[in-house]
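Posted in: Protein Modeling Q&A

I'm a second-year student putting together a small comparison for a lab meeting, and my supervisor asked me to include a predicted structure for S-adenosylmethionine mitochondrial carrier protein homolog-like Protein. I've never done this before, so apologies if this is the wrong subforum. The sequence is pasted below exactly as I got it from our records. If anyone can share the C-alpha cell output, I'd also love a short note on what stands out.
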Amino acid sequence: MLSQEEKNMYFSSLFGGAVGGLVVDVVLFPLDTLKTRLQSGVGFRKAGGFSGIYKGIGPQAIGSAPQAAFFFLTYESFKYYTEPHVAPHSLPLVYMTGASISEVVACLIRVPMEVVKQRRQTTTNHKHTSLRILKHAIKSEGIIKGLYRGFGSTIIREIPFSLIQFPVLEYLKSTYRINFKNNIPLESWEVANCGAIAGGFAAAVTTPLDVAKTRIMLADKKTATKMRVRSVLSQIYYEQGIKGLFAGFAPRVLWITLGGYVFFGMYDFSKNFCNEYFLDSEFENR
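Accepted answer (user: helix_wrangler)
Welcome! Here is the predicted structure, written out as C-alpha cells:
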C-alpha cells in the first residue's frame, strides 16, 4: 500500500515531467531542426537549410510529454527510495545511476519519435509526411529495426549526458540553497538557472556522440546495419576532423541551455503547482 507521500511523488513527477518536456520541445524545436541538418551526412543545405524548420514537430509533440514524464517518474522514485540509505559523499553516484536508468526507460519512447522526426527534418520531399515516414520504416525494416534504429547510439549519447548533467544539477542546487538561500527551497527560476548551466555543459561535452547518433538514424537501410558509434566517429574525424565531430555544436548547446532553463523551471513549477493545488486539496478533502 502506497503512502500519501509516495502517491504525491509519483503523480507530481509524471505531471511535472510531461509539462516540462512538452513545453521545451515545442518552443525550441527550430534549434533542434538546425542542429540535425548541420549534423546530416548530406550537408546543411541539402538537408533543408533554414526552410521548414518546424518539419517533424508532430512526432516530437506526441512523444515529448510521455518520455519526459516517465524519465522523471523513474528518476525521482530512484532518489526517493535510495537517498535515505546512502552517505552524503555517495549521493552523486545515486544521481548518476538514477539518471542512467531513467534514460533507458525514456528512450523506449524517445527513439521511435527521434527516428521519424529527424528523417522528416532532413527530407526535401514535401510528400514525405511524418506518418508516411513512420509507415515506411515499419514496412521496410519492421518495428524493432525500423523504429528503434539508433537505439544503442542514443543510449550511448544519453547516458554520458545524464552522468554529467544530473550530478552537476544537484550540486548546483544544493550549493546555491546552502550558500545563498539559508537552506530555503529554491524558486522555480533558480532551479531553471541551475538546469541551464548543467544542460549546456553536458551538451558541449557530448556533442560528438550526438553527431554519431544522428548519422546512424539518417543512414539508408544497408549502410545503417554496419554502422557503429566508434566507426562513425572515426570516419567523421578522418573526413572532417574536429569540426565534423562538433557539427551543430552552437545550436545544440544553445538549444539545451535554453531547454534546460525552460525544462527544469517548468518541471519544478508544474510539480509544485500539482502538489499545492491538486494533491494537497485532494488530501484535505478526504
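A couple of things worth pointing out for your meeting: The chain has a mean pLDDT of 87. The CA atoms of residues 70 and 197 lie 23 Å apart.
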